[in-house]
Amino acid sequence: MSENFEGRDLAGYSLQQLVGEGGTAVVYRATHPNHGTVAFKLLRPKLRQEKTAVARFTREAEFGKRVVHPNVIRTIEIGQIDGLHYLVMEWSTGELLEKYAKRKAPLPPEEVARILEQMGAAVHAAHSAGIVHRDLKPDNAMYDPETGVLKLLDFGIAAATDTRQDERLTRAGYFVGTLMYVAPEALSGELVTPAADQYSLATIAYFLLTGALPYLAKSPREMFTQLLSQPPIALNKARASLEFSPAIERAVMKGLARQPAERYPDVVAFTGGLCEALRAAPAEAAEPVPEGDQGGIFSRVRGLFKR
User: Fold this and answer.
1) Catalytic choice (135, 139, 197, 266)
2) Could you point out which of 54, 137, 157, 186 has its C-alpha 20 to 30 Å from the C-alpha of 127?
């Protein structure tokens, strides 16, 4: 039977409502006399005795505190009470970008530019702090369409660029991340560079613009093969009803280059180049995806590729 802490007080926080569940943790909306409304994250019971899981949970808090930026969810504190490992974060309005995009994609070029500009700035802040996120995806960003504000979250599997082999939490040969958004070089399980985050950002851009993904694999094994041996589907071939300028397609596909050296020098150059091209595009709204076909193959096989 799963735990439910709604209505209970923990570590001075009043847990009001369960708002999210994942494989490693659950999240409650909570209130605190000093911090106001916050997100209160609890490690799942089955993982509380696993050293690696606890280390990743702690690392998420440590990295969250290191990356201070308006577009990054602020980490307030981490602690343990009665054997419960918890992490308290800033409360953000809106919804997960994935949920929004699955309803609304393809999004208008201007809105995609607004989203990517903020996400790119957040990722650049992480890179400047010596951290590679490694799990960029629409499911790890909060977006408020009313205000247009985006905030990046979840540094649970992020890695410091100066991490030594004996400090790693992932065994060599095992990749971490979400397969639909992971860079090809990450599949070996070796530590990746900031260029891997750029690849993930390019995949997010592709999805927001088209409602589809650059690969049409139907299983994790097939996705592995395609990532390592085939080029991504060109942006202008993603959907017959959509057409983008050469500048937009060129920017997205450069970010999706299989070799890291063939991508932009950094995420600032990538988002800057793509956003400039997007804002130069006609201000026509993209054609909506028919109801029940949000993301095509994305919606049908998403569960197969989650970490």
Assistant:
1) 135
2) 54
